[in-house]
Amino acid sequence: MNSLCGFRLSTVGIVIGWFNLIGSIFSTIVLCVAFSRLDDLVKLIQDNLDNGANAVDNVGIRTAVIITLCVYLTTSVTNVIASSLLIVGTVKERHLLLAPWLVNAYIFIFFNVLNFIYMIYVAIAKGLPVGSTLGTIIGTALSLVIQLIIWNAIYSLFKQIRANRDLQQRLLPTTSAAQYPNYTKMPPTVE
User: Fold this and answer.
1) 71 with 93: CB under 8 angstroms?
2) Which residue has the higher pLDDT, 79 or 128?
3) Among 96, 71, 72, which residue's Cα sits nearest to residue 85?
4) Cβ contacts of 5 within 8 Å, gap of 6 or more
5) Per residue in 5-52, pLDDT tens?
6) Could you tell me how far CA 124 lies from the centroid of its own chain?
7) How far apart are alpha carbons 160 and 53 in whole angstroms?
8) What are residue 49's phi and psi, to 5 degrees?
């Protein structure tokens, strides 16, 4: 792949990196705000779960919310770092800096595939009407296809930068000692 939608892969890498970076920073801020309002969030969840008849354990809800927020915050911060490295790696043409984003995106794609399979399984197992689940399944499938296309474009950029770097390394002269004469050891003079 040499281009995506008519754009060079380096342009695609920078644009995807910036979109991911801005989205990840925004989600990190939202998650930090959620941590600062943890008691209100736990109360809101407890009010939605508690219908008067069932008493819900406040400590269990609080623990579940903290664990969930920690996982999402860690994922968001990791995405900030990976997106920053994607931008820097694309600009400086360093293929290894693209690797964290590729791994991070691959993990997200893997979990989205599992989510897609689970959604289809639930729709079939519960016998839900096709009209109520079709929109969600098509939206998830479309999102997954877009993620795969973007991942493939960034992977192609990774290979392209690596190939250019290897070509540049082969074109540069080597500096081994065997190619140049050694003038520091002069032969002994005969008198």
Assistant:
1) no
2) 79
3) 96
4) 12
5) 777 888 888 999 999 999 999 999 999 998 898 888 888 887 777 664
6) 31
7) 62
8) -80, -35
Q: Select the more confidently predicted residue: 144 or 64.
A: 144
Clarify whether residues 37 and 103 are in a common domain.
no
Cα pseudo-dihedral 114, 115, 121, 125, rounded to 10: 140
What is the distance, to the nearest Å, from the Cα of residue 97 to the centroid of all Cα atoms in its chain?
12
CA dist., res. 68 & res. 38, Å (int): 12
Mean local confidence (pLDDT), 127-146: 84
3-state helix, strand, coil in the chain (%, to 5): 75, 0, 20
Q: What is the mean pLDDT of residues 77-91?
A: 93
Domain boundary among 74, 92, 110: 92
C-alpha separations of 80 from 18, 60, 129, 177 in Å: 10, 30, 39, 45
Let me know if residue 16 belongs to a domain. Answer: yes
Tokens of 36: 């600062």
SS3 177: coil
Q: Domain check: are 21 and 84 in the same one?
A: yes
Which tops the pLDDT comparison, 165 or 178? 165
Q: Residue holding tokens 């354990």?
A: 57
pLDDT at residue 85 tops 90? yes
Indicate the helix (H) or strand (E) that contains 33.
helix 9-36
Q: Give the domain extent around 166.
A: 95-170
What integer pLDDT is reported at residue 53 of this predicted model? 44
